[in-house]
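Per your request, structure below.
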């Protein structure tokens, strides 16, 4: 039987396990460098608004999947949106409706928070996920390109950008 609940600070080791499993699935295990301290600081420090939220799914008491999300804001629509950063179901748990149930719970959160909708990304090679999302009525925004700037040694472009002055 499936159960879904919000994560607490005692779930941080499990959240980290899911994050690492997802990074492995996405063929970038070395990229998952978040620590327990990072997650506690940003999501579970009492008295500080969390920078993210996590839903955990269990199947017959066994950890099965998770969804990590946060809220953004649409200046065009004038409402918040729910951004799904990570959705992952353990491979041996797939096909039981766990991913769909996590997305349905996120949709309920979005409606409760008066969000305009939900957004997330999917890797272009992950056709099963693309097909699944489209079957739910999600629209792939192929005309939009993700842009990211980070501090990556040796160039540290984010730091360079922060130090630039207008001409």
């Amino acid at each position: 039987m499936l159960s879904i609940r919000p994560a607490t600070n005692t779930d941080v080791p499990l959240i980290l396990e899911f994050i690492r499993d997802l990074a492995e699935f996405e063929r970038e295990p070395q990229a998952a460098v978040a620590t327990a301290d990072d997650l506690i600081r940003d999501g579970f420090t009492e008295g500080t608004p969390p920078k993210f939220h996590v839903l955990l799914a269990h199947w017959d008491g066994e950890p099965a999947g998770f969804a990590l999300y946060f809220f953004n804001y649409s200046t065009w629509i004038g409402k918040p949106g729910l951004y799904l950063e990570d959705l992952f179901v353990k491979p041996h748990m797939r096909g039981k409706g766990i991913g769909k149930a996590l997305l349905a719970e996120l949709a309920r959160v979005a409606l409760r928070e008066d969000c305009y909708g939900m957004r997330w990304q999917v890797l272009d090679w992950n056709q099963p996920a693309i097909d699944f999302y489209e079957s739910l009525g999600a629209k792939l925004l192929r005309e939009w390109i993700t842009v990211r700037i980070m501090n990556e040694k040796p160039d540290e472009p984010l730091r360079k950008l922060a130090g630039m002055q207008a001409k």
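The chain has five helices and five strands.

Regards,
D.
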